[in-house]
Amino acid sequence: MWSFGKLLLAFAVASTSAATANAAVVFDRTIYYHNTPPDAAGHYRFEFQTTNGITTKAAGNENGAVGVVQYVSLEGIPVTFTYVADADGYRAEGEHIPAVPLHVLRQLEYIRTHPAVDEHRSRRW
User: Fold this and answer.
1) Please, which residues have CB within 8 angstroms of residue 29's CB and are 6 or more apart in sequence?
2) For this UniProt entry, which residues form the secretion signal (predicted)?
3) 11 to 5, 17, 24, 108, 125: CA distances (angstroms)
4) All structural domains of the chain with their residue ranges
5) 92-107 pLDDT, tens per residue?
6) The whole model's pTM is what?
7) Most buried residue among 41, 69, 76, 81 by CB atoms closer than 10 A?
8) Cβ–Cβ under 8 Å, residues 75 and 82
């Protein structure tokens, strides 16, 4: 069974390997790896670093997680992003992440503040 920490680790590896997929980068080896599996209260922590420059650290519990991922882009630019995953969803921040257009923010706010439509009741056949 996959734990939340393992899923986040898989996501971090997938997101960083997706950025380097065109370069066909293979993890030569792991330089550092530390994993504290979830305890009885659900608290966990992990971090690792690989020889190709990927570093990630995360910690969390049953209420969510926080973490940071760092790697070097194909252009040789260091990329760092942080994230929070909790009851409010997944939120990543970093200089390379484009800003959300204002109209998208307005749409999301509208959806958040208006109740869902009962489609069955709203249909008039």
Assistant:
1) 50, 51
2) 1-23
3) 10, 10, 18, 24, 45
4) 4-95
5) 898 888 777 888 889 9
6) 0.56
7) 69
8) no
